[in-house]
Structure formats: C-alpha cells, structure tokens
Amino acid sequence: MQGIKNGKTILVAEDDSEVRSYLEMALSCDGYSVEVAQDGEEALACFQEWQSRISAVLLDVMMPRKDGLDTLREIRQIDRDLPVIMISGASSPLNIVEAMKLGATDFLGKPVNNEDLRKAVKRALEKKDLPVPERRDSSSVTGSNQAWFGTNPYMMEIHSVLPQIGWSDAPVLIQGETGVGKEVLAREVRHHSPRANKPFLKLNCAALPSELVESELFGYERGAFTGAFQKKPGMFELANEGTIMLDEIGDMDYKLQAKLLQVLQDHEFQRLGGKETVRVDVRVIAATHCDLEKAIEEGRFRADLYYRLNVINLCIPPLRDRSEDIIAITEFLIKKHTPSGTAIPTVPRALKEALMSYTWPGNIRELENMVRKLIILRNPEALVRDLQSKTMRRVPAAAAAQATVKHSPEYAAVPVIKAETATSISILQRVTKAKEQAETEAILEVLNATRWNRKEAATRLNIDYKALLYKMKKLSIEDRVASVPAGSFSSASD
C-alpha cells in the first residue's frame, strides 16, 4: 500500500530493471514521489528538467553510457548540496573513496536492505539541517588531528574524506599493523557522524574466549548458563543509536561471525538463552591487523561478512613508512602527555635523528611509550642510546632473514651500497641505508621466487598486500627492476 505523499521527489538511476522497480516501490511506500532513469545520461536529462523538484538522487555506480561517478561529478557542478546516495553491487574501496571525494552523501551496497534505504534517504534529507556535533571524548585527536594524520600522502587522503565517511552510516573496515592507531581513526570517523554524541563502545575480539565475546556483544537472559543470575544487556543494546568498534575482527570465532552478519543485515538479534528479538540501530566499525582475504581462503573468516564490512576500507600505513610524520607526532604526544604546570621537554637534534632512523615495529603505540619515558626521565641522551641499540640489533636480524632466501638462480642483483666514512655520513644514516638495502633484496628475492605475484609475495613475507605495494613504491623496486638489462639476473653467489 502506498504511503501518504510527503512532497519530496527522489530521482533513481539504475540500469537493472528489477532493482529499479524495487527501489521505486520501496520509496513510494515511504511517501516519496519517484522519477526513474536507466542510465547516467537519462538521469542528467531528468535532473536538468526537474531540478527544482528533485530532493535527492540515488545513483548506481555501474551504468551504461555514463556511469554513476561521472553523473555525480556533473550533478555537483550544478548543485553542490543536493543529497546523492551511491549504490553499488561491487563496493570497491576505490569507488567508495572516489564517490566521497566527488561529494556523495552516502553509499549503499547491494542488495539494498529496505530499512537501510529508508534510513539513508531520511538521513540525507536531514543532513543540511543537522548541526555539526561537538567532540565529547578526550581520547579523540580531533582539534589537533592534523599532527596525527601528518603530511603522508595516504594519511592525507584518508583525512580528506573523513567528513563524508563519517556522515555515511556504512560499515567501515580499518586495517593496519598493531599500534598504528586504528582506534584513533575509528573515533575520528565517529566524531564526524551524527552519532558523535551517542555511545561509543569497543570490544577486542581477540582478548576474550568466543563464548564471552558472544555474551558481551549480545547479552544474555537469566539462567542462560551457569552464573547467569540475572539478565544482562549486551554491547549492541548499550550502544543503540551509537557506534561499536570491533577490534581484531579477524580473530572472531567463525560461528559467531554468522550472528554478527545477521545484526548487520537485519539490525536484530536474540540474547543468549532468550527468544525475544532485540532491534538496534548501531553503526559498526571493524578493525584488524589480519589479511582477511587470506583468512577467507583458509576458511577462518566468512566471505559474506567480509563483503558486508568492507563497504569502506581504510588502511593505515605503518609508522616506518610515515617517516615524514614522526617528529610532528612525537611533539603532539609530548604535549598530550606532559602534565599541566610541567615544563614541556624539548627534542634535541640527536634524538630527532634517532627517531627518524628507528623502524618502530610497535608503531605509534611504541612511540607513545617512548614519549612518556622522555617526560618522566628527562634524559634524551639515554633514549638516543636505547634507540641506536635497538636499531643495531634489528639490522643483523633483517640481513640474516633475507640471506636465508638467497638461493634462487632468479635473484636480481641490485647496486651495492658502498661504505662511507664517519665524517661524511652518520652511523644512523648508514644503518638506515643498510636496512633499506636488506629490505629491498628480501622483497626482490621473494618477488622473483613467486614470478612477481605480489599477493603471493606478501603472504610469504608475512605482510599486508597493500603494505607490500606501498613499500615497493617507497624503495623504488619496480623502477630498479625496469632498469636492469635483460639477462642480468644472477644467483646470490655471483
């Protein structure tokens, strides 16, 4: 039965006739007038003719003649504020980021749930009238977040799309090594959302047994198990209208993943030992250091849950690949942790060099611990010696690791870095060069062994696929290989 008309018209551009009919019917039942188009060209013609009547637009990303991104780009040239919701069955992170940069209001993955559609349209129409929420939790870096995001190109890219990602209610998957700041980024996403002043709850899926994770997330009824003396609400109930961060989602029990998928799809669940259906409105932000695609291949992670979570994917590079930001982050952390009324310690040049040369296996968490040590001890010279000692211990280990794989006849020779005197280059600089050479040789060795299958190489090197691509670009590995003449590949013994 069609609902009462509310005076708002939605333009739907979708090339699939069945999906187009479904969207038209669902929106009509919610009281909207609907105009439909089969492709981008038709959508633009309709928009230009009925511009004053159109309240919002639903655009499929993949359409003939003119796709959704090109259509969005042209709509934004005419109207910068019109709500535009993108829809896609292949929610590539690149497509999502590009759509957000072009000014998309929200992003929905196919198949489109009726409840998600209703909420997305309502939220988009109300967005202009909502005030920008103020930050409430002091753990967020908002207000000084530029220091945390720094000048690294990839981090600047993430920072630029945060407002659009925040206003969307789509799930977010944050990937990165342990200690890179995944929770900080999750709080930044939440800060930019209409849920900023609502609850933010976090659960580490790897820190508890699967039974406890389930009871923590979904709650339980009295008598559900031994020790359940009274009913307890779970985190999904407590975070209703707010945000839940599921840290280390890759370590969640496989059986429990099915129940989580149900909540994401239907926004409802049952407590342990209960029969009552509980409905919630919660945005989920998941984080992991694992390669989830590899976990799917190994049968440890559900593919359907991965695609449901992976609507927006943000990958934080490790601190060693953000060397340009280390000093700025250090100074930010010093100001953050120095007690009020206490002199802020300075960072002398020798310590800055040591900070830049160290590889930071613990990432920002390790740097933050070092900063706290500096504030307490006020002895930068001791920290320099400590970092130098750690660096010297790690270089032989890295060299030994890459030496163990130097037995392939396809090993590509790279220029040897000549030793320089202490007067022309510092010890730390030589250590850095030696580390980079060791990393380059190790990566080249594995790439050649896998016939330049980068995904397989990332698996053998035990690093994230995107991290491997980033490191290859930083070390100019592709450029070096391209410059090696044919027939110059030799064994390690040459």
Helix content, binned percent: 40-55%
> Average pLDDT value?
81
Fold-level CATH name of the largest domain: Rossmann fold
Q: What low-confidence regions span 5 or more consecutive residues with pLDDT below 50?
A: 130-144, 403-426, 479-494
How does the major sheet shape up?
Answer: 5 strands, parallel
The CATH class of the largest domain: Alpha Beta
The fourth-level CATH homologous superfamily of the largest domain is: P-loop containing nucleotide triphosphate hydrolases
The total number of structural domains is 4
Task: Summarize, please.
The protein is of the alpha/beta class. 47% of the residues lie in helices and 11% in strands. The C terminus is likely disordered.
Overview of this protein structure:
The chain is of the alpha/beta class and 494 residues long. The chain folds into 4 domains: 9-129, Response regulator (Rossmann fold, 3-Layer(aba) Sandwich); 147-315, P-loop containing nucleotide triphosphate hydrolases (Rossmann fold); 323-403, Helicase, Ruva Protein, domain 3; 405-494. The chain contains 21 helices and 12 strands. It has helices at residues 17-29, 40-49, 68-78, 93-101, 114-126, 145-149, 153-167, 182-191, 210-218, 235-238, 254-266, 292-297, 303-309, 326-337, 349-357, 363-377, 380-403, 427-449, 454-461, 465-474, 477-483, and strands at 9-13, 33-37, 54-60, 84-88, 106-109, 172-175, 200-204, 243-247, 268-270, 277-279, 283-288, 312-315. The strands form 3 sheets. The chain has a 5-stranded parallel sheet with strand order 2-1-3-4-5, sandwiched between helices. Strand 1, helix 1 (17-29) and strand 2 form a beta-alpha-beta unit. Helix 17 (380-403) packs parallel to helix 18 (427-449) and helix 19 (454-461) crosses helix 20. The chain is globular and about 70 Å long. The N and C termini lie far apart (80 Å). 33% of the residues are buried.
